[in-house]
Hints:
The structure is a single chain. By secondary structure, the chain is of the alpha/beta class. It is built from twelve helices and seven strands. Strands 1-7-6-5-2-3-4 form a seven-stranded mixed sheet. A hairpin with a 3-residue loop joins strand 6 and strand 7 (239-243). Helix 10 (186-199) runs antiparallel to helix 12. The chain is elongated.
Amino acid sequence: MSTDYQQAREALGIRLRELRLSAPAGRLTGAELAGRYGWNKSRVSRLENGRQTPTSDDLRKWAEATGQPEAYDELAARLRGFESHIRSWRRQLAAGHKAVQDTHLNAHADASVFRGWESSMIFGILQTPDYARSIFTRYAELQRSPRDTEEAVRSRMKRQEALYDSSKRFHLLLWEAALHTLICPPSVLAAQLDRLMGVIGLDTVELGIVPLSAPLKIPPATAFWVYDDRQVIVENWHAEFWIDDAASVDTYLRTWKTLRESAVHGTAAQSLVDAARQKLRAH
Length: 283
């Protein structure tokens, strides 16, 4: 967890303690506050000491329990402030995958130039419905999140309309391994590879593929997106990171440009996709 994130969480905890101790009807003990909502007693301590991130509902109940409901807006603003950078999957997927896809749909609408790196699967914006369906199903199983697969697929397909918007440009880099990853049935992957062949010819898309045999200056690690060279979105297994400080964005831009040095484009990229299709059919 980043230092900035933890400091912000600790500062929120200090504010929660202040509210508890300054309740108009008299200070509440941690046990009294926990008892009002059936919380474990240790929960109050974890929240006040910055060891647990509260939910919006936690903050609303805290403000009400301390007799200061007007404090909720302030508390919620603090939470939004540090969660805008680190967004845990547990919290984002509480209502399913569609809401997350809609968030990315809105972010795409506000940007014009996209740079992406993906090492393990096909970019969401290039996925077929069946491929996307497989991805959402697997992630719902992993994250134990609600199954709203069809709604999430529709939102992802809606995002793909941007590929045909002449005002946008997508500069995408894919590691060759993603062409072979069977995260879906072989027939679904075959159709997905057919889709890639067509995407390579779009005016708005520059698709580069880094061959498995290519010499690399850096490891082909975590996937990421850069929006308009000003914001980066990175995913890992527990959270999604939205990064907008200039130094960090510059690091990701250098990373993307370094990976691009090992990529092939055009007919050479098509040859790699076709080789993956042929290998798949052979099996």
